[in-house]
Structure prediction request, 157 residues.
Amino acid sequence: MKKSPVTAITLHRLEGPKADCGIITIDEKYTTSHFLTASLDAAYHCDPKEDRWTWAHELLTRWGRSAPMPGRGYDKTDAHVEWNNGHHWRMRFDLQQHGRDSSGHNLKQALRHALTFYSGRHKPAHMTTEQYRHFIEEVVGDRNMDRAAAILDTCDL
Prediction:
């Protein structure tokens, strides 16, 4: 079964050098950006036919040049991914050098990892079965668990 394609990825770098902080949306028609430094807007445009995951990874890699090295912190970056079938997911991406998070994941891998956790399909090694069950039931809840599972099952990841 073909999975629903991504229609938009919005990234908002909240920490880091002032010139690199801002919001950028990658969608099927164009890329829009809102940076604190207007001269940066011209530098962030992509081919609308290009895969949005690829472009988001390239942007995060570029931003990663000014992010902390692994083990020395991270710059908070919010991500919002939308798919053609109406699903969407928001998350925080802890940006480090090379455009990866503190686990070494790119954005797509980090999202897949988070959804697998929230869907109840993967218990981390540091949690007991009882802790994981409690977290899923009390914090995540059935609605978000089902939503995470639906995204994993029907959306391009």
